Amino acid sequence: MSIIPACLVLVLGFAVLINDIKAATPEETAAMAKLKDACVKQIGLTPEEASLISGATEIKSDGKPVSKNLQCYVLCFYKNLGLIDESGKQKPEVIYKYMERVFTDKTKIKPALEKCASVKGENACEVVYNFENCIEGLM
Fold first, then answer.
1. Which residue, 18, 25, 86, 101, has fewest beta-carbon neighbours within 10 Å?
2. Residue 116 backbone dihedrals phi, psi, to 5 degrees
3. pLDDT digits (tens, 9 = 90+) for 10-67
4. Burial level of 119, CB count in 10 A (0-12/13-18/19+)?
5. Torsions phi, psi of 118, nearest 5?
6. Residue 101 to residue 98: CA distance in whole angstroms
7. Architecture of domain 5-138
8. Nearest Cα to 58, choosing from 101, 18, 108, 91?
9. pTM
10. Can you tell me the distance from the alpha carbon of 66 to that of 54, in angstroms, rounded to the nearest whole number?
11. Cα dihedral 24, 25, 29, 31 in deg (nearest 10)
């Protein structure tokens, strides 16, 4: 799948919830919605699972365990934006550049990435999901 570079402005779901983010253009918002729909279809999320997605990748779990499908949705989103390679390995430079474009408070980026880079999980989906939650908690 080819991804529009402007999508990079909205990859992390928490980006739409934080006060220190830059506003997205209508084109960026539309590109994010297209990518979200593509990953929902690719992963095969049920309508109930899809309804738990807020923004790009924020999962509204209300403290309940999140399904593997929803975790894999986050991985799909990251891969399609080029933040993760096909093997599931993070691309730190790309993630950092993305975050520089999104967040106005640049002082939080490096410490958050350093802290969250070593998150673990049982599979690539869980690792990326845990990374997303770690960053969300620090930004």
1. 86
2. -90, -10
3. 344 434 333 345 567 788 778 888 989 999 999 999 999 999 887 777 788 888 889 9
4. middle
5. -100, 15
6. 5
7. Orthogonal Bundle (1.10)
8. 18
9. 0.78
10. 14
11. -120
Residue count of the chain, please give it. 139
Identify residue 128 by its one-letter amino acid code: V
- Taking each helix axis from N to C end, the angle separating 124-138 and 68-80, rounded to the nearest 10 degrees, works out to 80
Strand partners, 103: 21
Q: Comparing C-alpha atoms, which of 61, 57, 62, 73 is closest to residue 16? A: 57
Percent of the chain residues topping a pLDDT of 70: 83
| 3-state secondary structure labels for all residues of the chain | CCCCHHHHHHCCHHHHCCCCECCCCHHHHHHHHHHHHHHHHHHCCCHHHHCCEECCCEECCCCCCCCHHHHHHHHHHHHHCCCECCCCCECHHHHHHHHHHHECCHHHHHHHHHHHCCCCCCCHHHHHHHHHHHHHHHC
pLDDT of residue 94: 92
